[in-house]
Amino acid sequence: MAVLLSTKPAAMAMWRDALLAVDPALEIRMFPESGDPADIEAAVVWTAHDMAELRRYPNLRLIVSMGAGVDHLLRPPGPPPGIPVARLVDRMLTTQMGEWVLLNVLRFHRQDLDYRAQQRDGIWNELPAPVTAETPVGFLGLGELGSHAAGLLRGLGFPVLGWSRRPKQVAGVESFHGADGLAQMAARSRILVCLLPLTPETRGIVDARLLGLLPRGAFLINGARGQHVVDADLLAALDSGQVAAAALDVFSPEPLPAEHPYWTHPRVVMTPHAASITIPASAAPQVVENLTRARAGESLLNLVDFSAGY
Ligand code: OXD
């Protein structure tokens, strides 16, 4: 039996080597060279893989997303019925995202965009001192990534608020849920960080209404999916000053077309979906563990809940 890998060509060999380092007995096939479809028992795939293609493998018993997000697996037609899907919950992914959030919160909190602009123009001018304890940071999403980043900010003394679909308690975080909770949290968030899973309910959640509820001059940080943000609404909010600046790692579509206004907007800081990149050597042990569990008919680690969409 074999494991099918499907990802960017540059990452394929790294994944193969990482899986073989955990279990040298594995047979690895690299898509599109899948060999006999009957051999494939697990598919470890990233965003470009077509879910219809996975219906070709009659003995498939496990699908694994190569990242934390699974929206790509849930796109129509979705995974083959009855095949369990697992996502990655990985310390290195969580750590990287925490660092990226921290970088951008501090960038905005410490007026770095303004100081850079002043430096460019040769201006020596001290801006008002930022007060950490008076700068609430609101998180959309309190899953693995959100709770970890929230904890880092809490440790620095920021008041931290968090909104999740279902009620959730995270130490040191004032939590909100539901539509009313979202509005209450937004009204207090000087910096809004989106780390939500992409589901039909969260698509377009960062729209003119939500941005309009933020305190004037708030900041947006999006490390989740481009489809969470209504781009025209964000650009309008940036241009009116309702949102002072945005840090964006994710876009719709990706790569972002060269003519998109974000590229040159003076108040947008971009990274190319690089906030948190899967390191195969870190993720491989849980993939192999899930394969062992799937073979034994045991419950999987980080199983995707299709009803919740993540
Ligand atoms: C992920 C991502 O889902 O990198 O892990 O976007």
UniProtKB/TrEMBL annotation:
Report if keyword Oxidoreductase is assigned.
yes
According to the entry, every stretch annotated as the D-isomer specific 2-hydroxyacid dehydrogenase NAD-binding domain falls at 105-275
For this protein, the record's InterPro entries field holds: D-isomer_DH_CS (IPR029753), D-isomer_DH_NAD-bd (IPR006140)
Q: Which CDD domains match?
A: GDH_like_2 (cd12164)
Keywords in UniProt for this one? Answer: NAD, Oxidoreductase
Domain of life here?
Bacteria
Keyword Transport attributed? no
Q: What is this protein called?
A: 2-hydroxyacid dehydrogenase
**Source organism (scientific name):** Falsiroseomonas tokyonensis
